[in-house]
Write a structure and sequence with these properties.
Helix content: 25-40%
Largest sheet: 6 strands, mixed
Number of helices: 25
Strand order of the largest sheet: 5-4-17-16-15-6
CATH topology of the largest domain: Rossmann fold
Shape: globular
CATH architecture of the largest domain: 3-Layer(aba) Sandwich
CATH class of the largest domain: Alpha Beta
Distance between the termini: 60 Å
Number of strands: 27
Number of domains: 4
Bound molecules: ligand MGD, iron/sulfur cluster, molybdenum atom
Radius of gyration: 25 Å
Strand content: 15-25%
Length: 692
Amino acid sequence: MLDQTQKTPSRRVHGACPVDCPDTCSWIVTVEGGRAVKLEGDRDHPYTRGALCVKLNGFLDYARAPDRLLHPLRRTGVKGEGRFQRITWDEALDEIADRLRAVIDEHGGEAIWPYLGTGSMGMIQGVAGGGRRLWNSLGTSRHVSTICTIAGSVGTGYTLGHNQVGMDPETLANSKLIILWGSNPITTHHHLWRVITTARQGGAHVVVIDPVRTRTAAKADQHLAPVPGTDAALALGLLHVVVSRGAEDSDFIARHTVGWEAFRERIFEYPPSRVAAITGIDEESIIALGERLATTRPTGIRVTMGMQRHGGGGMAVRTISCIAGVTGDWRHAGGGAAYDTRGFFAGNWSALWGDDLRAKEPRGLAMTRLGEGLLEATDPPVKALFVYGSNPMASVPHQNKIRQGLERQDLFTVVAEHFPTDTTAYADIVLPSTMQMEHADLHHSYGHVYLNWNEPAVAAPGECLSHTEMFRRLARRMGLNEPRLFDSDDDLARAILDSDDLRSQGITLESLKETGWVRLDVPPAPFAGGFPSPSGKLEFFSARMEADGFDPLAGYTEPHETTQKDTDLARRYPLCLISAASHNFLNSTFANVERQEARQGGIPVVLHPEDAGRRGLADGAAARVFNDRGEFQGTVEVSERVRPGVVASVKGYWPRRVAGAANANATVDERDADMGGGAVYHDNRVEVQALA
Ligand SMILES: Nc1nc2c(c(=O)[nH]1)N[C@H]1C(S)=C(S)[C@@H](COP(=O)(O)OP(=O)(O)OC[C@H]3O[C@@H](n4cnc5c(=O)[nH]c(N)nc54)[C@H](O)[C@@H]3O)O[C@H]1N2
Ligand SMILES: Nc1nc2c(c(=O)[nH]1)N[C@H]1C(S)=C(S)[C@@H](COP(=O)(O)OP(=O)(O)OC[C@H]3O[C@@H](n4cnc5c(=O)[nH]c(N)nc54)[C@H](O)[C@@H]3O)O[C@H]1N2
Ligand code: SF4
Ligand SMILES: [Mo]
């Protein structure tokens, strides 16, 4: 029961941070008189250790912000204008049910696109499962979540045999050499920095590989800045040094890998001199790091999503995951490569998702190709879009194309949100969603191996509903009678927890409600004795890749745009734009919070002095960044933080809150990376000019 009066003693309610961050913090909400009065990190949690972050510390105020959506709305203005009138839930659900039913009758279920983003990572409300049973029952198109991790996941899977496992990042505390490869933990998952600090106290050397000198790079022992998209070549060059010195672990290779002879030959195609020419890193630095890698056990590599947002991103993560197969680092706690940890949670996904509720496997629509899906899909065309937990007008590639798609008069759009965003402005119906302390959820993490239960702490404000409740009501309105569509949130949690693996660890909903979180049973060196691949080994050579039409051998796949020289594209757009994580927003979430906007400042356009000089751009100049797809505006910072030829900005700004009404995604293409249809945010050529 919720506390009703001020006299009620305060309660401390366990929860978890829902946003798309590898730290998935465990938190405690203090509730007095039915009101959340304090939010803090759980001090007892070994990873969170009592601290949240600069983005979440103001979360209780965020939940009470005056512009929070509290009631369903119907559009009254033209699409994009943002004029709405309040309606009741009954009116909203009737209209949605009628429109979806009409679309299904005329075009079939696949004309509906349930567009689910990463606003919440939960299994019950969020990206890991929310709503899937309903969409299955309606036979909608399958939303394919290509926005973030997928290229690297598929690449990891080809090497290790599972897309979402790797080294447990917490074991980096034991590493003696740490390579943060296209990873910026001080900004993007700062609790890992404590682990790295522990390793440094034990003598670890920390190297950052990133075209941009990030906050993390500035604090590391060493920073190497490659040409974007060339990391796999660097990995091969480092291995060249290792193997040339005979420092490979022959015993590990013989017992636990497949395809060594062929991979060894490939490595020898990448001597440091050649790698220097590809990556733009000087040969001495490549040799020095290669020697350090050859002689330092354990070496732990933290590779995250930033570096795989390129045409060859999948292969890059695959090849980087092979390094520890050559050095034998997978033997050791603190050795290996850490990309994702979600696969260590062996839940009963099929019970949660109910994919058996579909008559057939539907067509997939890629999250990163929203513009294309809305404007070009046929058979059937997309006639209804249901967006939740996502702000595609800010976050998804090819902003101008998306805007055109959302403007379509014959498209019925529903957006469930917390705030009026650039995307809700195009909705026919807007639905107000609950926030994390107002609903139940279950969270695993992509950056550690703890499972978190999130207990609802306070009542929902206004008429906000959780996604699960919205979907239960919508199912009823649509006359569906499959009993699983009406399961309670606890039922859903029990469904996913119903697996032999979790049972054997004694994990139940009741035990989680008791403790708030639990560490999954993951050994310190999970692959010391073998890998979850078809061969049981780490696969330098992958027969599955061959069957899927790829080069089966780990190697280097060129990016689409960044390494081009002397092409028409490279001449017209000489700079490569990287628009990675901002420190104060979480994707586009919190970019409407004035305090965060003030901390973050306007859109940065960071140029190397050579590139700025050539264009007559000085620090503080207003500039436009553009290519054939579109343009956005920002403020020039002249700095050696970026290597020549690279321009750095950040993601997340809301188009409607910045000059020029566009962010970096106006310039990003919706084309795919090499694997999984992943996004190519940083494989993007642009030019920069002073704003006239
Ligand atoms: N504060 C904050 N935290 C976040 C987020 C946020 O928006 N803000 N986003 C969250 C999300 S959704 C995710 S997926 C994670 C991502 O976590 P990270 O992967 O750590 O974050 P990114 O900033 O996307 O990328 C990391 C770095 O990759 C670099 N990079 C880009 N291209 C290349 C390349 O070709 N090679 C190499 N070596 N490096 C390259 C970028 O310059 C960037 O500094 O962070 C999460 N945490
Ligand atoms: N240029 C560039 N763009 C990028 C990236 C990049 O590196 N560069 N990174 C990409 C990455 S890694 C990711 S993961 C994507 C993320 O892209 P999206 O999945 O679109 O995530 P956000 O932009 O954070 O938008 C999430 C929205 O969901 C809302 N929300 C939060 N919780 C809930 C909830 O419980 N219910 C409902 N209904 N709404 C909720 C928030 O208010 C917010 O508006 O962005 C990508 N965009
Ligand atoms: S955004 Fe990340 S670091 Fe911040 S509270 Fe959430 S999980 Fe923790
Ligand atoms: Mo992401």
